[in-house]
Amino acid sequence: MTGPDPDANPETQADSPPGTPVAQTAETVEALVRGQIAHALGGRRGIVEAAVPTLVFTALWLTTRELTPALVVSVAAAVVLLVVRLVQRSTVQFVVNALFGIGIGWFFVYLSARRGGSEEEQALAYFLPGILYNSGYAVVLALTCLVGWPLVGFMVGAVSGDPTAWHSDRQIVRLCTKLTWLLALPCFVRVIVQGPVWLGGQHGYLDADTAIGALGVLKVALGWPLQLAALGAMAWLLGRGRTPVRATG
């Protein structure tokens, strides 16, 4: 996903130094958006780094039923990945994102403990931020489409030099609206699937351990695999057209 962009000018790519922003090499809106998304994902390694802490937490909780060790070891796993990144002098963005997610989860666990929640309720609280985040992100993306200013359009604006110039081109607005809906779709699916499981575990409709195990598996299964499916659909859509970037100026 981080290889050369087939829509970009081969000569421009060949002459571009490593780390050159996509905005400087992309010649079409489709190439720009595809490149920006690929850069944001971090490739296969970024996917693994995002999944490891959740897998470690879920596995340890289900096997030991000890919340604190599960949290500590999941943080330790992320820190090891961070150290490896630092030693290799590569970007730490994706590991830091994972650590930030663990930190938010830990904070929700703390709040649950302060309210007198059981260990099962505290473990369930670890997964609540992800559900809330996806709910909020889905709503924001949907609203940007509904009001006619799809979020993906601002990626185009980053190239034109005017963050709103792209909005005057109806073709670009339609393209960016479709892409933004595709970007929102995984968030909607996660909330629709994970929300009832979390509520069931929280209110006793499901066994707590079953709910926690299911949420751990679903968090990974509906994470990058679902995101990649959505991005595949976006790539297919982007591959159908070649809208010049200069049309946004």
Q: How would you describe this structure to a colleague?
A:
The chain is mainly alpha-helical. It has one domain. Helices cover 76% and strands 0% of the residues. It is built from eleven helices and no strands. The chain has helices spanning 10-15, 22-25, 29-41, 43-64, 67-88, 93-114, 119-146, 153-160, 170-203, 208-221, 224-238. Helix 4 (43-64) packs parallel to helix 6 and helix 7 packs antiparallel against helix 9. The radius of gyration is 20 Å and the shape is globular. Mean pLDDT is 78; it is low at 1-24.
Summarize the structure.
With 249 residues, the chain is mostly helical.
Give the arrangement of secondary structure elements.
Blueprint (H helix, E strand, L loop, with lengths): L9 H6 L6 H4 L3 H13 L1 H22 L2 H22 L4 H22 L4 H28 L6 H8 L9 H34 L4 H14 L2 H15 L11
Helix pairs in contact: 3-11, 4-5, 4-6, 4-10, 5-6, 6-7, 7-9, 7-10, 9-10, 9-11
Rg (C-alpha, Å): 20 Å
Structural class from helices and strands?
mainly alpha
Let me know the average pLDDT: 78
Uncertain segments are: 1-24
The helix count comes to 11
Largest pleated sheet: none
**Fraction in helix:** over 70%
Overall form: globular
Instruction: Please tally the β strands and state the result.
Output: 0
Tally of separate domains: 1
Please provide the ordered H/E string of secondary-structure elements.
HHHHHHHHHHH
Strand content: under 5%
Distance between the terminal alpha carbons, to the nearest Å?
28 Å
Task: Jot down its keywords.
249 residues, mainly alpha, 76% helix, globular, disordered N terminus
